[in-house]
Write a structure and sequence with these properties.
The structure is a single chain. By secondary structure, the chain is an alpha/beta fold. The protein folds into two domains: about 190 residues, Rossmann fold, CATH 3.40.50; about 180 residues, Rossmann fold. The chain is built from 16 helices and eleven strands. The strands form two sheets. It has a seven-stranded mixed β-sheet with strand order 3-2-1-4-5-10-11, sandwiched between helices. Strands 7-8-6-9 form a four-stranded parallel β-sheet, sandwiched between helices. The radius of gyration is 24 Å and the shape is elongated. It starts with 5 loop residues before the first strand and ends with a helix.
Length: about 400
């Protein structure tokens, strides 16, 4: 066992822009204070391995990576089951702090691991850095999770190019983007790109979501634009709509989902945009409406893009915040930073329900911001029925507000 104290950094879940900035900052500030800084490849899988793949950081490596996309530490969605915890990893390296970078599943698992170590009289603090491009962790004052703004920025870049293609070619694109349970990413991209239609799970707060309703919303926008003499557009659908669909809808869809270790459908294995585009084309053909549309999937290309300045600043602050909270003797908490740059702890127990789950932060669909943005969409309303009958036998079936039970 080494006498020199060390910290151990792990990354769980999927990548998000800014991970390397967090790792770099944490490594630099702890090296400066005399600690060994160890990074563990493959997240929790490494902790439960008899032969963990450990990387020791020096200043030069930490300094090379801070502005890069991706993660210098290999990531994994591994969730411990009956595997045996490698306690020797912590004892032999004199680990005093476990720094976990990830979402709520990663935070909860890290908390359980250090609790188990405590039962073995191994004192290891743990501090979690919240990461997700979905922006769905309930941080105070609705502060963003790191990676969200960079992923949105990359999505907007692709979205603007797609919209320009639609305008140039006079056709439509059906686009899908990530967002497991919340529509923040889709909302941000669609609003920034002035897309005429977006579909996010929060819109279905008054009615059950179905494939049919999603298709009718997209066609509502297509017909509205035909009435306006606009023969192109992009409809963006958040993948989160799959997560709130009734099981019967998914079972009858013909899609064979696989599931990750946390029980979530692995939506990366299917093209959501392709599914919706095929369904839209089938409905348009049935209606006798001639509109060309093509699928565009915004997926993994958002996760490892180079972080923008906002996230580089936020991630640097969060990394420094890890050291601040550790020096204060805190453990079992998430490091957060507000708009004034003040670092505060957020304890997992304050976020978890009785089952240990953390409710996701959703788009506030009733906010003034959301309502104003929805006014910029194009969709059918009652005033459009007369003109819409040129294309639809019963325009009320494609009325945006009636589909969502808002009228």
């Amino acid at each position: 066992m080494t006498s020199r104290k060390s910290i151990l950094i792990i990354c769980g879940g999927g990548p998000a822009p800014g991970i390397n900035a967090v790792i770099s900052t944490v490594a630099k500030i702890f090296i400066k204070d005399g600690y060994r800084v160890l990074g563990l490849h493959e997240g929790f899988k490494g902790i439960f391995s008899e032969d963990p793949d450990i990387k020791e950081f020096d200043f030069h490596h930490a300094d090379r990576i801070f502005s890069r996309g991706g993660s210098t530490l290999i990531m994994s969605r591994f969730k411990p089951g009956k595997e045996r915890l490698n306690s020797k990893l912590f004892l032999e390296n004199n680990v005093k702090l476990l720094v976990s970078i990830g979402g709520d599943d990663t935070a909860s698992t890290a908390n359980r691991i250090t609790g188990y170590l405590k039962d073995q009289n191994i004192a290891v603090a743990n501090i979690h850095v919240p990461k997700t491009i979905d922006n769905d962790l309930p941080l105070p004052d609705r502060n963003p999770t790191f990676g969200f703004h960079s992923a949105k920025d990359e999505g907007v870049r692709i979205g603007n190019t797609t919209y320009e293609d639609a305008r140039t070619s006079h056709n439509w694109f059906v686009m899908s983007t990530m967002g497991r349970s919340a529509g923040h990413l889709a909302f941000g991209i669609a609003t920034s790109c002035h897309f005429p239609m977006m579909v996010i799970p929060e819109m279905f707060d008054k009615t059950t979501i179905t494939f049919d309703k999603v298709i009718r919303l997209i066609i509502s926008s297509m017909v509205k634009r035909k009435i306006l003499g606009i023969h192109y557009g992009v409809a963006l659908v958040s993948e989160g709509v799959f997560h709130i669909m009734p099981e019967s809808e998914l079972n009858n869809s013909g899609i064979k989902f696989t599931y990750d270790d946390h029980g979530h459908p692995e939506l990366g294995n299917v093209s959501k945009s392709h599914i919706f585009n095929v369904l839209v084309q089938a409905r348009l053909k049935k209606l006798g409406i001639e509109i060309k549309s093509r699928p565009v999937e915004l997926g993994y290309e958002l996760r490892c893009c180079r972080p923008i300045g906002f996230d580089l600043t936020l991630c640097t602050l969060l990394g420094l915040g890890v050291k601040k909270l550790y020096d204060q003797g805190l453990s079992g908490c998430i490091v957060t930073a507000n708009s004034r740059g003040e670092v505060t702890p957020l304890f997992l127990n304050d976020l978890q329900d009785k089952d240990g789950k953390i409710a996701p932060r959703l788009v506030n669909i009733d906010s003034e911001f959301a309502n104003l943005c929805f006014q910029n969409l194009h969709y059918l309303e009652e005033a459009d029925y007369k003109k819409a009958k040129t294309y639809l036998k019963d325009p009320s079936e494609y009325d945006f507000n009636k589909i969502l039970k808002k009228a």
